[in-house]
Amino acid sequence: xxxxxxxxxxxxxxxxxxxxxxxxxxxxxxxxxxxxxxxxxxxxxxxxxxxxxxxxxxxxxxxxxxxxxxxxxxxxxxxxxxxxxxxxxxxxxxxxxxxxxxxxxxxxxxxxxxxxxxxxxxxxxxxxxxxxxxxxxxxxxxxxxxxxxxxxxxxxxxxxxxxxxxxxxxxxxxxxxxxxxxxxxxxxxxxxxxxxxxxxxxxxxxxxxxxxxxxxxxxxxxxxxxxxxxxxxxxxxxxxxxxxxxxxxxxxxxxxxxxxxxxxxxxxxxxxxxxxxxxxxxxxxxxxxxxxxxxxxxxxxxxxxxxxxxxxxxxxxxxxxxxxxxxxxxxxxxxxxxxxxxxxxxxxxxxxxxxxxxxxxxxxxxxxxxxxxxxxxxxxxxxxxxxxxxxxxxxxxxxxxxxxxxxxxxxxxxxxxxxxxxxxxxxxxxxxxxxxxxxxxxxxxxxxxxxxxxxxxxxxxxxxxxxxxxxxxxxxxxxxxxxxxxxxxxxxxxxxxxxxxxxxxxxxxxxxxxxxxxxxxxxxxxxxxxxxxxxxxxxxxxxxxxxxxxxxxxxxxxxxxxxxxxxxxxxxxxxxxxxxxxxxxxxxxxxxxxxxxxxxxxxxxxxxxxxxxxxxxxxxxxxxxxxxxxxxxxxxxxxxxxxxxxxxxxxxxxxxxxxxxxxxxxxxxxxxxxxxxxxxxxxxxxxxxxxxxxxxxxxxxxxxxxxxxxxxxxxxxxxxxxxxxxxxxxxxxxxxxxxxxxxxxxxxxxxxxxxxxxxxxxxxxxxxxxxxxxxxxxxxxxxxxxxxxxxxxxxxxxxxxxxxxxxxxxxxxxxxxxxxxxxxxxxxxxxxxxxxxxxxxxxxxxxxxxxxxxxxxxxxxxxxxxxxxxxxxxxxxxxxxxxxxxxxxxxxxxxxxxxxxxxxxxxxxxxxxxxxxxxxxxxxxxxxxxxxxxxxxxxxxxxxxxxxxxxxxxxxxxxxxxxxxxxxxxxxxxxxxxxxxxxxxxxxxxxxxxxxxxxxxxxxxxx
Length: 1007
What we know:
Blueprint: E1 16-18, E2 34-37, E3 52-57, E4 65-70, E5 79-86, E6 91-96, E7 111-119, E8 123-131, E9 140-148, E10 151-159, E11 164-165, E12 184-190, E13 196-207, E14 216-220, E15 224-227, E16 232-241, E17 251-257, E18 271-276, E19 285-291, E20 302-311, E21 321-324, H1 338-348, H2 351-357, E22 359-362, H3 371-374, E23 379-382, H4 393-407, E24 417-420, H5 438-444, H6 447-462, E25 468-469, H7 493-498, H8 501-507, E26 524-528, E27 550-553, H9 555-571, E28 576-579, E29 583-586, E30 594-595, H10 600-610, E31 616-617, H11 631-641, E32 646-647, H12 652-664, H13 670-686, H14 706-719, E33 721-725, E34 738-741, H15 748-752, H16 772-779, E35 785-787, E36 800-806, H17 827-839, E37 842-847, E38 863-866, H18 874-881, H19 931-948, H20 951-969, H21 975-989, H22 993-1006
Parallel strand pairs: 15-21, 22-23, 22-32, 23-24, 24-25, 26-28, 27-29, 28-31, 34-35, 34-36, 36-37, 37-38
Antiparallel strand pairs: 1-10, 2-13, 3-6, 4-5, 5-13, 6-12, 7-10, 7-13, 8-9, 8-12, 9-11, 14-16, 16-19, 17-18, 17-20, 20-21, 29-30, 33-38
Signal peptide: 1-21
Organism: Streptomyces minutiscleroticus
GO molecular function: beta-glucosidase activity; cellulase activity
């Protein structure tokens, strides 16, 4: 799923004045304009805290280009700010004032204006100002927009009265919700998406005399006030002023109940006014009560708008509504079976309401929070990095509750189901427990650990008000050049299936009876189907090389490799399935590549009909946009193929209308719509959202707790794979002097990887946790541990070196090899390995989402560890380094000798890797010995266990045989050895213990 954009909401369009108006005299009594930005070079391109111009964006290619260009036609001075953009997510630029200087006071002026060279794109350009707080990054954001509907220079004038408070994103979650103008920190411009264009800007200045109405604003405590029939709603009306000063002039608010869907028999009409005299303190409130009447009839929800007419201040942005809750209808009866509740509710819904349930919008893309009710949205999501601010558990719950409150203003008060990509812990939330990525869970080879990590993730996610997780990924990764390979448990479908205990960790019992618990979430099996098999070079998405490409397989390969994990997921009761962006090309069916979001045979024929999946299918991020044809065709094709809910992060309005139009035109059948909505409603009922729509935050204290971090620590330790350990370098002893180097030794962001706080992740201290270096220092507090990232510090006098190398974060196709990435360690990491390992005994840890090519240095390395992406608990890595826990991990993917070997997987006819699938040395004190005699005994034990169905005994016999065989092989891995060795691990996972030992015996003879 793609990362979200942080869209600003639209406001009133401003007037555009022709160039001839430049230099016109100010109005009588108006102060002279005050320059903000002349773009002559007085403000540098830099970053805060200095005063600076800087760009930003959702992806690496989203920030616009900027330059100060000399122009003969510059409206003012010699230069203008000129730029170009081609934005897929979001992007723009800011001018922030110096954080270490005083804030600016704009309160004496009417508004802000600037020169804009339009291109006539017809797109909205959003303009935002930053008010209050400590600096530009901790201020309130107020926004408006203008339309680029003309070419050439125009002066855009924006009165401050046109700015509205951003409800979708606030760096501080709001200070006083009043545009004070006395502590201003600059402005920002958000450029249009989906159009390649350019712009020029000049002469930003403040103009005019302040509008007195800006000094006071009337606010209500909420836009929606639900109340049970017969109850009394209390609407609090308050007044707020600039700088919290007392009112200069009186403010009057007249109110009346009028309009809405409620009738005169449903409530007692009210009419009157409240006054706030001059001198009233800012924040003073008055309460208006609206009493509803009880008629004992079963009814849908009914609305009672409380219209406000404000004199002397700015009116609220929305008319508050009292809502009489729906009551007495069968679908509200928790005692009825889910199937009956669904049928009753479905029978009452209009086509538009059904279309709303099938629509999912991105949190930050909502024009206003009121769109939740206006379009009857079934779901809102946070894409990667789309977080409330501040990014705290409390803010998450408050934000989601705000969206849920909006659903109370709809007829049937159908709650939202809010979704996130919590793919290795609640990874969008700062301070959450970050688990190893799935590749590390696969290396741990422990279904119990997979379950526990899922359970901790579910508890932390649900405690913030989120009931739905877009995880786990059940892809079977077949080419480590794929940028999503770390989201896979491994290359063997049997390994992936064995780790699907994570689904129960998320959801609880397979029949869904645990879903309404405060520590469980709806899981998503993704990405259906064969996303891990896409061929290198087959992608047509931007500069991607593998991700979203084409998987070409026979039907037998499809069933055995890629479809197998989904059979198990359906049996486990997984609640939702997400199709892949990729295309499937089945050899011999003569269809060619078919996009999964349009594949009726797979989504409906196989998943729903043959496998019996009774949950709902949710599309990936804007994935239907990739289908051929116009947007109406995209909607029609995908829904008819079997999509039930469509993730249309930005296009939710047009999608909703087109879906209705397509059904009314007969191009999508009503039966298909009813099936989709029934599936969605069923999961909402199972989650208990109708009874408890708001966040249950009782578990919030467990987020990032010691108990949860202990689970992540155990998973990190179990995920470490010891590939080489010559001379018994590992485990380290606590009294050794250790020299630590490498780019990933002390970087929490790097060891957590992509999908951490943001979509792509980033280096540095991005959240709370323990780096590998910090874990080592805690494990051996009295030892002499020296850290030199680049190994520039002297290397004399140390017992052993530990060099932690690897990758920096990436996600999805951005991380594809060939898209600016390769599998080679960086030059700096290679140099650190060479220096440290040339000076002392050394262990090299590879922190990465996939194997790295280190064969040319393997001879100089005494111990080699595949650390994968261990998450925030570096203590777990230290546990195995210092012997607190034995190394037990095994390779979940084949470790290649060279990139030319890729793709290389267990079972290949030609198989000659550096280390085979399933390889993993141990630091247990006793490794089995005895040669072929011991293997014969273990073969008998394995056969007996298999016959008796004794899984534990069978696995133990195969594991002992594997360790014995590895001991003999040492570091010499030949093709004759690797093939049967890897096959043995696959046989073990499928319960064929005797055959596994036979394969290991074959490998032993080849060693």
